[in-house]
């Protein structure tokens, strides 16, 4: 549909009528040929920002998919890069792309790690979590970070009301809500549920200090605000 090598419309429809896990298993072989993969235009400025924030020894890519973020971790982590995802198909593709990383199949809401990471990153996965799940998600990230460790992710500015992007996301979310009301199993993917005010509140409750950093390479909106910011959430010391 997107490129000759990408998924067809029929394949995307089958995926959308599956569970999230099975849907991504089906999409995995062609995922990197879709716009859903985090583009290098975002990965590169995040990498530059992390170099300035580091150094780090160990890093985790949360909901790593086909491994786009693993390359970022290898650029900034001296010892170990780990990808975690609940789709076996996505992990198989990631292993072929970044064979030197480690991979674990697990639910992001039940991470099988202790406090062993200096850095956790995530790219484009938060629409798969409902607002009521954010507290548990951030608590899981908190528990796998060492004290002083950082949870870092890019967060685009919200689409302006009335803009083409605003109506596209509103329409997509509406379609998904109708689909999930009529069809089982549900496929959770909403573009408008991850709002900065809620995220800031839940990160604070989970035990993080929050900082926003601009990513100037991604440009500015007409009012001068950044099109995308980097959320840097640092785990507070227990004391």
From TrEMBL:
Keyword terms of this UniProt record: Methyltransferase, Transferase
Lineage of source species: Bacteria, Bacillati, Actinomycetota, Actinomycetes, Kitasatosporales
MF-aspect GO terms: methyltransferase activity
The protein's name in its UniProt record: Class I SAM-dependent methyltransferase
Annotated organism of origin: Streptomyces tabacisoli
PANTHER family referenced in this protein's UniProt entry, alphabetically: METHYLTRANSFERASE, N6-ADENOSINE-METHYLTRANSFERASE TMT1A
E.C. designation(s): 2.1.1.-
Superkingdom field: Bacteria
Record's keyword annotation contains Cell division: no
GO biological process: methylation
């Amino acid at each position: 549909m997107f490129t000759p090598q990408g998924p067809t419309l029929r394949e995307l429809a089958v995926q959308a009528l599956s569970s999230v896990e099975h849907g991504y298993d089906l999409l995995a072989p062609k995922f990197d040929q879709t716009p859903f993969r985090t583009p290098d235009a975002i990965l590169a400025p995040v990498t530059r920002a992390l170099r300035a924030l580091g150094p780090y020894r160990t890093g985790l890519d949360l909901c790593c998919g086909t491994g786009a973020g693993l390359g970022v971790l290898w650029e900034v982590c001296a010892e170990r890069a780990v990808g975690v995802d609940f789709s076996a198909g996505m992990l198989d593709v990631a292993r072929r792309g970044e064979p030197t990383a480690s991979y674990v199949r697990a639910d992001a809401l039940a991470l099988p790690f202790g406090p062993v990471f200096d850095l956790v990153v995530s790219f484009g996965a938060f629409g798969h979590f409902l607002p009521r799940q954010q507290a548990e998600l951030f608590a899981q990230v908190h528990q796998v970070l060492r004290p002083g460790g950082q949870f870092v992710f890019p967060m685009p500015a919200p689409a302006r009301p009335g803009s083409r992007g605003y109506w596209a996301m509103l329409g997509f979310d509406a379609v998904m809500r109708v689909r999930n009301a009529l069809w089982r199993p549900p496929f959770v993917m909403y573009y408008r549920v991850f709002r900065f005010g809620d995220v800031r509140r839940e990160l604070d409750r989970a035990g993080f200090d929050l900082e926003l950093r601009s990513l100037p390479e991604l440009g500015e909106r007409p009012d001068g605000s950044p099109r995308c910011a980097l959320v840097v959430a640092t785990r507070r010391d227990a004391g």
